[in-house]
Amino acid sequence: MTTENDDTFDPPYVKGADDAADTQNQLNDEMAAISKQYEKAGTEETQPRLDYAPYRSSILRHPTKDPRHADPETIELYAPAFGQRDVHALESDLTIQDGGEPIGERIRISGRILDGDGRPVRNQLVEIWQANAAGRYIHKRDQHPAPIDPNFTGVGRCLTGDDGSYSFITIKPGPYPWKNHLNAWRPAHVHFSLFGTDFTQRMITQMYFPGDPLFALDPIYQSIVDPKARERLVADYDHDISEHEWLLGYRWDIVLSGSNRTWTEDDSNV
């Protein structure tokens, strides 16, 4: 047992130089100050700030030099290729991929891919990846103490229909910790990747679930300083998509351009 005056007390959560030392309250104060500055400026920012101080590693994550220019036609000679026959319909159901049923809340995510004028984007390759219901990714670098689900890979893909529609059946992901600051947790989310007519046109974004209490605490979500732009990343619960005694449904449309454009990660995966 220790007391407040015990000089030998060493907080168990401070383990070394690799662990974050800032508290959530410090981050909250910084994010609140940035929000006030944005409101006073009277401008509109629909994309995340590259240098967003509360997101501690954002400086390391975004490019600081002019990108290397290349001939897109030359790249296509070596990049992966896909067609209608390369994407199976069952790849959009993440609950049937590994022989057994995964654990967690079964959900459907449906929506449309639209351009800035509301026109559907057809035959678009849509890929998703996510954590499992416990907030654990399948890849080896995720080593936080949450169980791996042997029946859930967390990855899926599909092609959009003529009306720009897509649909996935999956498990609702859980929140997970990260090392941005002490007791930092990411809201539950699903990563989306979209390709245009070739592999040089890839766009990446994230979809969130309504009513998450971690929104106000998350520097990545808050790096989009405009509240309306942030809200476009949050799916709507849609009871018409839900199925009796089977799953709950969420609807989320992705707009690729214009004033209602969905935020995308310009150059890095988060």
From TrEMBL:
One Pfam family hit: PCDO_beta_N
Record key words, sorted: Dioxygenase, Oxidoreductase
Transmembrane segments: none
Top-level taxonomic group: Bacteria
UniProt name for this protein: Protocatechuate 3,4-dioxygenase, beta subunit
PROSITE patterns, per the entry: INTRADIOL_DIOXYGENAS
Molecular function (Gene Ontology), one example: ferric iron binding
Family membership: Belongs to the intradiol ring-cleavage dioxygenase family.
GO biological process, one term: 3,4-dihydroxybenzoate catabolic process
